[in-house]
Amino acid sequence: MEIYNYSRETFEFLGTSTADESPREPGVFHIPAFATNIKPQSVSENQVAVFEKGNWIIKEDYRSKSACKIDTNGFFISKYNFSIGESPSSTIILTDIPDLNLYKPKWNGEKWIEGLSDLELDKIKKQQSSNVVMLTQLNELTVLCAQQDKMIKTLAQTVNNLNLKIEGAVNNAQQ
């Protein structure tokens, strides 16, 4: 007897198998948990058969699709993962995540575009340029500090050597 297996978590159709006949009761078949002898309907793309309340129900299934959540103005919020029964909407769209080079990605209905104005972009570019200058200056200061530390160690070693020579001369003079 053919049986139809479904997921214990999502109750979605997984596939078919054969039920075992009872060794004590010929003609009686054991149907294991999360299986039924009721055949599911065939499904179309983006659909799945789900076993609920003793029957198969067809539900939307976009779990394998790449999707993003956007706000009502079209600005990117996050990547989105569908659950069974959910479908795209005005704020959950079927698309890949936006290009990382966009500062404030915005969906225009067909593709991701830059959501910042030219003035806002200019401000960001000036700030980035300023940051580069500050990082360069910081690196130069780091090099100077390392050179200064080396000079201080050399000077300390020289002073220590002079102290040893003076002590030696004093000891020789006292003998």
Strand order of the largest sheet: 2-1-5
Which series of helices and strands comes N to C?
EEEEEEEEEEEEH
Q: Supply the helix-strand structural class.
A: alpha+beta
- Taking the alpha carbons of the first and last residues, their distance comes to 114 Å
Question: What is the gyration radius calculated from CA atoms?
Answer: 37 Å
In oligomeric terms, what are we looking at?
single chain
User: In total, how many domains does the architecture comprise?
Assistant: 3
What fraction of the residues are assigned to beta strands by DSSP? Answer: 25-35%
Categorize the overall geometry. elongated
Largest sheet: 3 strands, antiparallel
Regions with little confidence, pLDDT below 50 for 5+ residues: none
- Fraction in helix: 25-40%
Total DSSP E strands: 12
Helices, by number, come to 1
Mean pLDDT: 92
Please describe the structure with a list of short key phrases separated by commas or semicolons.
single chain, 175 residues, alpha+beta, 3-stranded antiparallel β-sheet, 1 helix, 12 strands, 33% helix
Task: Give your account of this protein's structure.
The protein is built from one helix and twelve strands. By secondary structure, the chain is α+β, with helices and mostly antiparallel strands. The protein has three domains: 2-60, no CATH class; 67-114, no CATH class; 118-175. The chain has a three-stranded antiparallel sheet with strand order 2-1-5, with no helix packed on it. Strand 11 (105-107) and strand 12 form a beta hairpin.
